[in-house]
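Section 5.1 Outputs to date
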Amino acid sequence: MPDNYYIADQFTLLSKLMDIHGENSFKTRSYSSAAFAIEKLPGQLADMDPAKFVSIKGIGDAIGKKITQILETGELPLLREFIGRTPVGVIEMLQIKGLGPKKIATIWKEMGIESIGELLYACQENRLLLYKGFGEKTQANTRETIEFYLRAQGSHLFADVEAFAYIVDKALKETFPEEQFSFTGEFRRQLPVIDRLEWITTAEEKQITAYFIAQGYKQEQASAGHKVAIHYFRSPEGILINVYFPEPGHFYSTLFHFSCSDEFRATWQAVTGKTYLDPGARKYISEEEIFEEASLPFIPAPARELEATITHARRQPLPAPIQPEDIRAIIHSHSTWSDGGHSLEEMARACMSKGFEYLVISDHSKSAFYANGLTEERIRQQHQEIDELNRKLAPFVIFKSIECDILNDGALDYTDNILSTFDLVIASVHSNLKMTEEKAMMRLLRAIENPYTTILGHMTGRLLLSRPGYPVNHKTIIDACAANHVAIELNAHPRRLDMDWRWIGYALEKGVMISIDPDAHSTEGYADIRYGVLAAQKAILTPDRNLSSFTLQQFREYLARRKK
């Protein structure tokens, strides 16, 4: 039988949802008052005669009938109706301290944001500052609260757990200097989303268990029935940690096993006939020795994902994958001309201080009104400032670009006369993201065919852990980019990493250039380029196939060839 707290919670949630939907304020307050009154009752409503409900201050006849519904059925039909009309992510926002129903209504109905992850991304883009009731302090508090909330949900962005992982790794190695430790699993393979952090060690199980418990970790379980002993710990921050304890002499064979995807491991076994967890298996002195025995070139752990990687390696040595230091420029960035946090000059000087050769400034186009997108007149003004800065900062170069919205019909939102004034155009979808594959493909293909489109931005619009992205046929999109000499962005923001690295190989086969871009909305955002590189390494992308690795001269020549 529902108790008073459950019943009060039903009315509290109903009051908040009605407030979000803009319902009559008298009704919303009455449900909130009823919840408060019910929580303070000395006895349980379930033990009362329903006829007495109406005499309780703050309840009355109408709410009394709803209490009876809850007691008889376990639910409140009116609440179920409002839940059905509200996106799950909007309801979840009520968990974020500092966000009341009125602010959530603005976030949902005016900003078009329907999940906590999308809201966090909007905070990172300074999007909230454009709306009444959201100042810098509110935006900062919202961002911090969401980040804290998401850390406790189980899955994490690679970028969000990276610093924590290295702190733990350093502490383990310093505490047990005579033992071996190595990352393995998802983190070592540089997956964009991490469910757990994993280590392999030669240390004793009881030592590691005592260490983590002393650090405030909870021991969740130890494995049973596995060929390798595994212990599971949960950090105070809610991060799951696995620690593997191989048999003596089997450190590297165990490391290899757990540093491969299931697909890669199955293909490896089919090709080599080898498995590595049996106690009687050969002992190796390094992972390199495992590859030498199989007569295959060494494959780094991030690339141990796909069957195709082994097939490629059997034919020829794998090229050296791109590294962060191979990035020579910042392509795709925003300034205070739209929704960025720093001026054009500040963005440029930050590039120069980091050793980049040029900057492609790509503020939002006019359809992105929510991001202070540029009107035609403001474009002319911005281009004048860029010309002045190029004279002032030479030989450093700022290229004139725009992140141009792909409209509902696939058109770009400026005339050809305006588009022709840019050095390059990044075409992206930002609105009406809930599309069928047919609709999404029509919009993207038409935009790709526009002769002014230079780069296709964040292909699917996904936000990791928040929004899956609209459905597309990747092969058809890549084929169209090949036919129209359009590069495809690997948006390096750790919440996007879009296009997905799994399709980079096909793009390379078709001769399509990739462009690893940070989509930076501040100078700090330049650091995100590294996460794009880590994702690209999984597909063994090389610098010569990445646009942002071009020298200034190479980039100018590339743009000149496209305009012929």
